[in-house]
Amino acid sequence: MRKYIWLLAFFAVFASCSTEETTVKDLTVTQVSNTPCKGSWDVKMTRSADDSDDKTTIGFGALTKQTVKCTLENVAGNCDLDKIYVGGALQDGTIVIYVYKTKETMADCYCDYDVSFDLNNVEAGRYPIEVHRAESLQKVNANNLVYAGSITLSKNTTTQRIDIPKITLYNE
């Protein structure tokens, strides 16, 4: 009987010393900010949402204390937009980033904005990533998927930049 108790204790200790990779559980997005409307007033007055051939670029900095500084360059939005929001989640091992606005905008012009944010509670490793343009209620679905790919996050990388299709925040 003692032999079984020792054997059970050995397996319990061995099982608690697992070598599995750490998984991210509570990915958060903080420090979200955006630039003012880029371009001159004349450009803002004549541009429609479909006039831009530019792509949006997403950048990921080096991993520092489980945080990655990120940027989205050239996100198109209405000229009177003052705040762009970014949210994030980890769904089945995939980093999901969603970009949205909350207020209706009334100006009849569009311009580009740069958005910066921090992804928190991430570990070094390779992740599938999705970027979505979300509705103001932060609904993410296949219809608003902008980009799907993968990213490697580590402490030793310089900024990684990926050109993705243009993100345009339309009035809903």
Summarize the structure.
By secondary structure, the protein is mainly beta. It has helices at 2-16, 41-46, and strands at residues 28-34, 56-64, 67-78, 85-91, 94-100, 110-120, 125-133, 145-153, 160-164, 168-169.
Question: Can you describe what's shown?
Answer:
This protein has about 170 residues and is mostly beta strands. Helix content is about 10%, strand content about 45%. It is built from two helices and ten strands, in the order αβαβββββββββ. Strands 1, 2, 3, 6, 9 and 10 form a six-stranded mixed sheet that branches. A four-stranded mixed sheet has the order 4-5-7-8, with no helix packed on it. The chain starts with a helix and ends with a strand. About 10% of the residues have low confidence.
Topology:
Elements: H1 2-16, E1 28-34, H2 41-46, E2 56-64, E3 67-78, E4 85-91, E5 94-100, E6 110-120, E7 125-133, E8 145-153, E9 160-164, E10 168-169
Q: Structural class of the secondary elements?
A: mainly beta
Helix content: 10-25%
* Shape assignment: globular
Total of DSSP H or I helical runs spanning 4+ residues: 2
Q: Spans of 5+ residues with little confidence (pLDDT < 50)?
A: 6-24
List the keywords:
12% helix, mainly beta, 4-stranded mixed beta sheet, 172 residues, globular
